Amino acid sequence: MHEQLVEQAQLEMAQMAEQETARQLISEASQKLSEAVQGKANNPQGTILLRLLSVCSEKLTACTKQLADIKHEKEKLEEKLKKLEQRVVRTKATETPTLSHAHKAFLKCIS
Question: Most exposed residue of 37, 52, 78, 86, measured as fewest CB within 10 angstroms of its CB?
Fold first, then answer.
């Protein structure tokens, strides 16, 4: 479970990096588009840049969704891990007195 949690954290970091790359591409495309279409009514370069901007925007949307999914999965794994840790602590707490009691009874028997 711990390995899955580490894997989810790594996926989250990778998605955040992809999201930042997409933001940068969109920003760059917007800037170039703005420069290209200033004063030109029918500009093929502007059309290409518009497509690039659209693709980048779609990529950013997909990355954002993937990041949300990864975060959700990570949260689920963290919750499972927390519950398992609590269960182990409770189990140890209930086993210790029983073992001590059994040990005392055994010592009484052999005395």
Answer: 86
Decide: helix, strand or coil at residue 40: coil
Say how many residues make up the chain.
111
Q: Concatenated DSSP letters for 41-74?
A: SS-HHHHHHHHHHHHHHHHHHHHHHHHHHHHHHH
- Half-sphere exposure of 12 toward its Cβ, with a 13 Å CA cutoff? 14
pLDDT (tens digit per residue) in 59-78: 888 888 888 888 888 888 88
The domain ranges of the chain are 2-82
Query: Nearest-CA neighbor of 66 among 21, 20, 18?
Result: 18
pLDDT classification of 41: cutoffs 50, 70, 90: low
